[in-house]
Amino acid sequence: MPFDSLGGLAGVAGLLGLCVGSFLNVVIHRLPRMMERDWQVQCAELRGETPSTAEVLSLARPRSRCPSCGHQITALENIPIVSYVLLRGKCSKCAAPISLRYPVVEALTGLLSAYAAWHFGPTLQAAGALLMLWALIALTAIDYDTQLLPDSITLPLLWIGLALNLAGAYVDISSAVIGAMVGYLTLWSVFWLFKLATGKEGMGYGDFKLLAALGAWLGWPMLPVIILLSSIVGAVVGIGLMVFGRHGRNTPIPFGPYLAAAGIIALFWGPQLTRGYLGLMT
């Protein structure tokens, strides 16, 4: 495909990614709260109590608003990145600061979306890569905030990966199925070995499902690279946080962001990394 055509495709994907990034900010903020409200309702029902009739919260309702003063965000105030710059990072009503995370998520989603379109071209792989990237960005931020990896994202991600590989989008279906099984069982085994040895839980079940999803997308041969990359990055960041006093030794550090980062690296450069890894082993 000509370079100009690829550039145009990447530009369209980048703009789409900016808009999706704005929506992902809503998902990151609201989905954990929706989950917590569902748990509270279920607990109330088990106790025989009447569930709270608080305001309905979903990804669509109510409209986005300032958490400080309740000002509803207008359409002009919701333009990705541009609105943040024009508002100088503050609410237009009460001047409360707006988290830098919002434009960062939008920019990251836009850049990765553009690169995926340029890397894969107008193919099924590119469409799938966009879905995978968007899901991983949302999971990264949610896990960082709450140490939760919602089933409502990880499980559809797994099944979509298997469905795409029925058509051989990334790997053959047998490699995808084995990747899902081995990915889940690998971290499940680590979890139980660590628990038997220490009496503590070293990770959550969401991590098992996320690695299973990455295996379903990229196949079982990619799992060693993903695990190695995520472990190295996680160890470096964890040690750095302890050295600089951001976390104590007993403070849990979410593993999902490192799995997600490793999955993104493997999506784009997995075959080259695998060849390099195998070359070092021989």
Q: What is the end-to-end distance?
A: 37 Å
Helix content: 55-70%
Structural class by secondary-structure content: mainly alpha
Biggest beta sheet attributes: none
- From the spread of the alpha carbons, the general shape counts as globular
Radius of gyration: 21 Å
Low-confidence stretches: none
- Portion in strands: under 5%
Average pLDDT confidence is 88
Number of helices: 9
**How many beta-strand segments?**
0
Oligomer: single chain
Explain this structure.
With 282 residues, the chain is mainly alpha-helical. It has helices at residues 3-46, 82-86, 101-120, 124-146, 151-166, 173-198, 205-218, 223-243, 256-281. The protein is globular and about 60 Å long.
Question: What is the element layout, followed by pairings?
Answer:
Blueprint: H1 3-46, H2 82-86, H3 101-120, H4 124-146, H5 151-166, H6 173-198, H7 205-218, H8 223-243, H9 256-281
Helix pairs in contact: 1-3, 1-4, 3-4, 4-5, 4-9, 5-6, 5-7, 6-7, 7-9, 8-9
